[in-house]
Design a protein that fits this description.
This protein is an alpha+beta fold and 457 residues long. Helices cover 29% and strands 29% of the residues.
Length: 457
């Protein structure tokens, strides 16, 4: 029995859409199922990402033809720690030319991703449809949709969010904790002139911890609800809450909703030929802006494993689960330190901030830390998007490789014939790079990590 697709993806949020785009770019047949009829379907009830780090942007740049960067990504050049009086205690500015995060308009990114998928001949989007059942038999997964139709594929990937239907269908639990304090998030647009710089700020106020974001024409605030406060009542007080920051009459509030943060992970990220990614596999508090970024890292890894080493797909969870656990711990620590309600602790953080701003070169240190190459739990390193000279032409690593494997050498080719054949069959880029370190050959995975060993058939 032939399958309808190579991969079915449940969920066309940014994680599912990026996975579909990375697979579609490699010619994989993909069916994407999403309950929303289109990317403009109403206000999303859950938190949306506000910041995307440099490493996650590199994943998006692997999608050739993804349009509208200027519409959905505003460079984030400044971040702050503010006191209760809203005065800056520490301000960090990224030096010009240093890669950094962006303030993200997630709905516009989702529309751009769907538009890109629509132009991919091997990707089909089943909009307005949901997964209701699945069955695994041999090397096929049969996915039943809510209209009674069915899709068959070699793999099913659940990218359907924290309340994942796919996770429930494979019997995986969602272990961890939920924060006892709900938060109010307000997204608004304004025509009032303001600072031209996008800014992200923690407010060190033990009375009511909060986070605020600003970019030209857009504002976002997140306030912790206090014990005993009625969520519905706080939503009606938006004008009162934003008044210290802006004239509420100048705002067009697009969303005001209360949500709860979670730190959870699925008990299993794979059952047979069904896998989980993004919030379906894990969720974390947003205090370090790594929720969506972690999901994009998931599919950056999963996309090449499904195409190139399907027999080794267990590597996905081995690599990603420890990394997600570490990111979650960091987010939890940041939340406790920056947004706790203990007055003595908040005063201590403000005191530390006053000292930190006196340190020489603080901006440059922060910039280096933000752009530093990542490492996998086993120590495998990721290559930075460094400038290269190939055949006398200046380029960068990411521009050279796109969404492909890379074989970079600075001299003699040391590849054995079997490895060369394996890489050639997968469309790898072979390049002799001027001054490549040590004159040796380096094999680079599509997610830019150095391949310690190339898995062969």
């Amino acid at each position: 029995m032939s399958a309808d697709a190579d991969v079915v993806i449940a969920g066309c949020g940014p994680v599912g859409a990026v996975l579909a785009a990375l697979l579609g770019d490699r010619g994989v047949r993909v069916d994407v199922v999403d309950p929303a009829p289109d990317a403009r379907s109403g206000s999303h009830p859950h938190p949306r990402a506000a910041v995307l780090d440099w490493h996650a942007q590199r994943i998006l740049r692997r999608i050739a033809g993804l349009d509208g960067w200027d519409e959905w990504a505003t460079p984030l050049r400044r971040s702050q720690l503010l006191g209760p009086d809203r005065r800056p205690r520490v301000t960090l500015r990224l030096p010009a030319g240093v890669p950094g995060g962006v303030m993200l308009d997630q709905p516009r990114l989702e529309r751009a991703l769907r538009e890109r998928l629509a132009r991919m001949p091997t990707v089909r989007l089943h909009a307005g449809r949901s997964v209701t059942a699945l069955d695994q038999s041999g090397d096929l997964v049969t996915v039943t949709l809510d209209d009674g139709s069915a899709l068959t594929a070699s793999w099913l990937v659940g990218c359907d969010g924290a309340s994942s239907t796919v996770r429930g269908l494979i019997g995986a639990s969602y272990d961890g904790v939920s924060y006892p304090e709900p938060w109010l998030v307000v997204d608004a647009r304004t025509d009032e002139p303001g600072d031209d710089e996008a800014t992200f700020s923690y407010v060190l106020d033990a009375t009511r911890p909060m986070v605020t974001f600003a970019r030209p024409g857009v504002r976002r605030w997140e306030w912790m609800l206090l014990p005993g406060e009625d969520p519905a009542g706080l939503v009606t007080r938006v004008d009162e809450l934003v008044t210290p920051w802006v004239d509420p009459a100048t705002l067009r509030v697009e969303r005001a909703t209360v949500f709860t943060f979670h730190a959870r992970s699925a008990s299993a990220w794979r059952r047979g030929r069904v896998l989980l990614a993004g919030d379906a596999a894990h969720s974390m508090p947003p205090f370090t802006a790594q929720g969506l970024a972690s999901g994009l890292r998931d599919v950056a890894t999963l996309s090449w494993l499904l195409v190139d080493t399907p027999d080794g797909v267990d590597r996905y969870e081995r690599e990603r689960r420890p990394a997600v656990a570490a990111a979650t711990r960091t987010a939890l620590r940041a939340g406790r330190v920056m947004l706790g309600r203990n007055r003595l602790a908040a005063a201590a953080v403000r005191g530390f901030a006053r000292t930190a701003r006196l340190l020489p070169g603080l901006d440059a240190r922060a910039a280096r830390a933000a752009a530093a190459p990542e490492r996998l739990p086993d120590g495998t390193r990721q290559l930075p998007d460094a400038p290269l000279v190939v055949d006398g032409r200046r380029t960068t690593l990411d521009a050279l490789l796109g969404n492909r494997w890379g074989v970079l050498r600075g001299g003699t080719d040391t590849l054995d014939p079997a490895t060369r054949a394996w890489l050639t069959a997968r469309g790898a880029v072979f390049a002799e790079v001027d001054g490549w370190p040590g004159g040796h050959t380096t094999i680079v995975r599509p997610d830019r990590f150095v391949a310690a060993a190339v898995p062969l058939p």
